[in-house]
Amino acid sequence: MYTFLAGIALLIIGYFTYGKFVEKIFGVKEARQTPAYTHQDGVDYLPMNTKKNSLIQLLNIAGVGPIFGPILGALYGPVAFLWIVFGCIFAGAVHDYLTGMISIRNRGAHLPELAGKFLGKVMKHVVNAFAVLLLLLTGTVFVTAPAGLLNNLMNGWATMGLILGAIFLYYIFATLLPIDKIIGRFYPIFGALLLISALGVGAGLVFTGAPIPEVTLSNFHPDNAPVFPLLFLTISCGALSGFHATQTPIISRTTQNEKQGRNIFYGMMIAEGVIAMIWAAAAMSLFNGPVGLNELLANGGPAAIVSEASTLMLGAIGGTLAILGVIVLPITSGDTAFRSARMIIADYFNYSQRKVTNRLWIALPLFVVAFGLTKIDFTLLWRYFSWANQSTAMIALWVGAMYLFIAKKNYWIAMIPAIFITMATTTYILNAPIGFRLPINIAYIGATIITVAVIVAFFYSARKQRAANIPLEIDISGWDKDSVA
Fold first, then answer.
1. Which residues, in sequence order, are bridge partners of residue 255?
2. Least confidently predicted of 190-194, 208-212, 287-291
3. Euclidean distance between CA atoms 295 and 318, whole angstroms
4. Cis (ω within 30 of 0) for the bond into 229?
5. Do 11 and 273 touch, CB atoms closer than 8 A?
6. In a domain, 212, yes or no
7. H or E segment to which residue 15 belongs
8. Which positions, given as ranges, span the membrane (predicted)?
9. Does the residue 408 lie in any domain?
10. What's the CA gap between 461 and 472, in Å, rounded?
11. Rounded to an integer, what distance in angstroms lies between the CA atom of residue 96 and that of residue 34?
């Protein structure tokens, strides 16, 4: 219990301390107009207040990641708490803040465009394809997961096909309509439901004296469960997630002032970390250790853990409300995953999104592909999602480090987590069954060589770009917003 409570406290303290430190390094410009005003189009670019943007950002980035990931990560024991807390403060929240703020400085650009500007033109094409793949996987995962929960909640009253169809129908409207029509109106309500459900489960754990394990030297490295790199790929959302780099530009296009960035981007990642801590603690303490947890996961997956934990902590009615909150969570990330994919493809081809027919031409093929992916086993999808997710986080952190290096600011705040996740991700790819299947010791050596090569390439490119004095932000002086496509 002490590790859990201390972790929650550290996350909150991290927002007020390290969050301010990162904000100071970046250097906000309150007088600078944001894309919400300079590019206002009534669809994707329009100003919304801090409270609304914060709740939308939280729901965008949360998904099932900070619930299902920590539940699966609970198999590694309380060491998962350390990754959630320190990963969130020093990596995940920094990742989200820099991605969002650099996007604001570059007319709300998405990660592929930022990667092309700061890491080279070839990276724009690579990251564009990679980001769309990640978003398709994310959207699909965030269809199948809530559909399974709804099916369980209704005791099979509605078929999975009918539930999937209803969710996809909602996604179509949320992807195509202006952001303030559905997302802007209903997300504050969904956000309240999410927070109430998570805090309810957390309070239940504390007040019932649930046996939440403590971190000790004996359980720091559980038997038959190598912590590195698997833990850092299993728990992504809630600690560090590349999916967030695809979501922050949605809100960078609706942010009113740069000063709001710490609350919206850094702060909401901290809130996601709290949610992740709660569900990791629930999974560790309520099911007779790893053996019982493994059995329940084998029979019903993470969704079964959510249902059981919610009912145990909050009773039948409260548990049902909590489950509804968890169902809302992935749905409100799935819709913005498809919305983000539409925006990325539109930006790549410079295809105007003012007309709904233009949005439809891009969105419909995405939904057709995603529907086909729902036929694939969820566990397999999650493995590929985790790999693609952390690879995207790696790219986004290197973009942040490059931006700060060129600006002659403290780039280590982004570079240190970039190096760490590069090492973890490449080790996983070299060792995993879905990768090259190399022995773990060989994978460590190979990942070290690749990581060192990336560092060398970074400094070589960074010095060239600093010497070339490339512009870090798009000049908005005299911008005619009516000319924006």
1. 48
2. 287-291
3. 25
4. yes
5. yes
6. yes
7. helix 2-16
8. 6-22, 55-75, 81-104, 125-145, 157-179, 186-207, 227-243, 264-287, 312-332, 360-381, 387-406, 411-430, 442-462
9. no
10. 15
11. 17
Cα distance between residue 450 and residue 429, in whole Å: 12
pLDDT tens for 235-264 read 888 899 998 998 899 999 999 999 999 999
In 3D space, the residue among 54, 26, 389 whose CA is nearest the CA of residue 238 turns out to be 389
* DSSP β-bridge partners for residue 48: 255
DSSP code of residue 106: T
Q: Which residues, at least 6 apart from 397, have a Cβ–Cβ distance to it below 8 Å? A: 91, 94, 95, 98, 414, 415, 417, 418, 421
In the chain, the amino acid numbered 424 is: A
95 Cβ neighbours under 8 A, 6+ residues apart: 240, 241, 242, 244, 245, 269, 393, 396, 397, 400, 414, 417
Nearest to 86 by CA among 231, 293, 218, 289: 231
Tell me which amino acid residue 173 is: F
CA atoms of 327 and 144, how far apart (whole Å) = 11
Give start and end residues of each alpha helix (H) in 374-411: 378-406
- Number of helices (H), then strands (E), in the chain: 20, 0
Query: Which residues in 171-184 are b (16+ Cβ under 10 Å) and which e?
Result: bbebbbbebeebbb
- CATH number, domain containing residue 21: 1.20.1740.10
Q: Which domain holds residue 94?
A: 2-389
Contact 324, 193 (CB under 8 A): yes
Average of pLDDT values for 258-281? 95
CA atoms within 13 A on the CB side of 155: 1
| Residue 304 within any structural domain of the chain | yes
Contact status, residue 95 vs residue 400, Cβ threshold 8 Å: yes
Instruction: Indicate whether 267 belongs to any domain.
Output: yes
Mean pLDDT of 273-283: 91
pLDDT of residue 202: 87
Which pair of tokens denotes residue 263?
A: 């609350």
User: Of the candidates 146, 190, 196, 244, which has an alpha carbon nearest to the alpha carbon of residue 56?
Assistant: 190
Give the Å distances, CA to CA, from 441 to 225, 237, 421, 427, 448.
15, 27, 18, 9, 11
Could you count the other beta carbons within 10 Å of the beta carbon of residue 403? Answer: 26
Q: What is the pLDDT of residues 417-428, one digit of tens each?
A: 999 999 999 999
Residues 24/466, Cβ–Cβ less than 8 Å:
no
The closest of 138, 158, 160 to 148, measured between CA atoms, is 160
- Tokens 């024991």 correspond to what residue? 77
Can you tell me whether residue 302 is helix, strand or coil? helix
Angle at CA of residue 428, ends 425 and 434, nearest 5°: 120
Q: How many structural domains is the chain composed of?
A: 1
Question: Locate tokens 């972790």: which residue?
Answer: 7
Is residue 213 within 8 Å of 68, Cβ to Cβ? no
pLDDT tens for each residue of 210-234 = 889 898 877 776 666 678 998 998 8
